[in-house]
Amino acid sequence: MSQIFTYRQAFTLESGKTINGFQLAYTTAGLLNERKDNVVWIFHALTANSDPTDWWHGLVGSNTFFDPKDYFIVCVNMPGSCYGSISALDTNPATGTPWYQDFPLFTTRDMVRAYAHLKKSLGIEQIAIGIGGSMGGQQLLEWAVEEPLLFRNIIPIATNAQHSPWGIAFNTSQRMCIENDPTWQLKLPEAGIEGMKVARTVALLSYRNYYTYHHSQAGITETSADKPVDEQVFRASTYQQYQGEKLAKRFNAFSYYYLSQAMDKHHLGRGRGSVEAALQRIKARTLVIGISSDILFPPEEQQFLAQHIPGAQISIIDSHYGHDGFLLEYDIITRLIKNFLSQPVKNSITQQTTIINNL
């Protein structure tokens, strides 16, 4: 069930800027039991929404592992996104007009501090399982560090403790695509949209890899097969164009721009001494999952997490899907979660295991 939570008090961001409240769009499924011990909090990635059955249908929903008949499932749309939470297209109370290019930066730390107010309003005292991939995993880790006793179990997937120079470079190139759109500086909802289409094609190169394209986008399109060679069109070309157009139908350049900045600012060690010291604060039982072919969040980053989170386990899924494997390999992820949660607490908090799953 999709709902809106409104916080009406002053809220100070990591940047030092203070805003006069915010709203969060969120979805719940299932019911909170009497013991309040069946909460699953799901964190979505860059362009997703607060309904995990829409983008993680193999893992969340009826007859899946995270079934609403068993769990009270919560997922919040990130601040800055365009699916109902505070965003650049909302009205700036100070001006009475949309924020547009003046929208303040919400870091992942700001995001989870906003979620804490929603948590309180829902009567949630502890979260049984926190799970999220990519930028969703970044938020999960941030919250597990910020409130060490909040989660009993966390499952960060294809994510990291600090966004890498490689990841920042990809995001910077994508924002440059938007910045070079002549409409970007206009105060219009559609500003920068053509640049965002190009940005999305750049992002795809990091979400997939050489082998993903080789397996799924090799050759020329069927419609151009009988045409002269100079008129033939590659499937990889039409695929890139299609993906840019597809995102433009459901997203906007402002959300894309500011959320990518938030990802770049992700740094668990900021103000906490070091990344290693921050990870040591996590008390939750932890299963870290990586994807063998992920070039954006390579397995080394998950290995770093498992090395420094006390008692963490790690599983690396052998998949050709690249970073997008965290969305597509839900059968294997389900098996890994079942195995992890079935282990006695005294064993799982002292054991670290690496599992390679060959498909």
UniProtKB/TrEMBL annotation:
The keyword Cytoplasm applies. It comes from the Bacteria. One of its GO terms (molecular function) is homoserine O-acetyltransferase activity. GO terms for biological process: homoserine metabolic process; methionine biosynthetic process. It catalyses: L-homoserine + acetyl-CoA = O-acetyl-L-homoserine + CoA. It is found in: Cytoplasm. Keywords: Acyltransferase, Amino-acid biosynthesis, Cytoplasm, Methionine biosynthesis, Transferase. SUPFAM superfamilies: alpha/beta-Hydrolases. InterPro entries: AB_hydrolase_1 (IPR000073), AB_hydrolase_fold (IPR029058), HAT_MetX-like (IPR008220). Its EC number is 2.3.1.31. It is an enzyme of class 2 (transferase). Its main location: cytoplasm. One of its GO terms (cellular component) is cytoplasm. Pathway: Amino-acid biosynthesis; L-methionine biosynthesis via de novo pathway; O-acetyl-L-homoserine from L-homoserine: step 1/1. It holds the Pfam family Abhydrolase_1. Residues 39-329 form the AB hydrolase-1 domain. The keyword Transport does not apply. The active site is at S134 (nucleophile), D294, H323. Gene3D superfamilies: alpha/beta hydrolase (3.40.50.1820). Substrate binds at R200, D324. Homodimer. Transfers an acetyl group from acetyl-CoA to L-homoserine, forming acetyl-L-homoserine. Belongs to the AB hydrolase superfamily. MetX family. This is Homoserine O-acetyltransferase. It comes from Deminuibacter soli. The gene is metX.
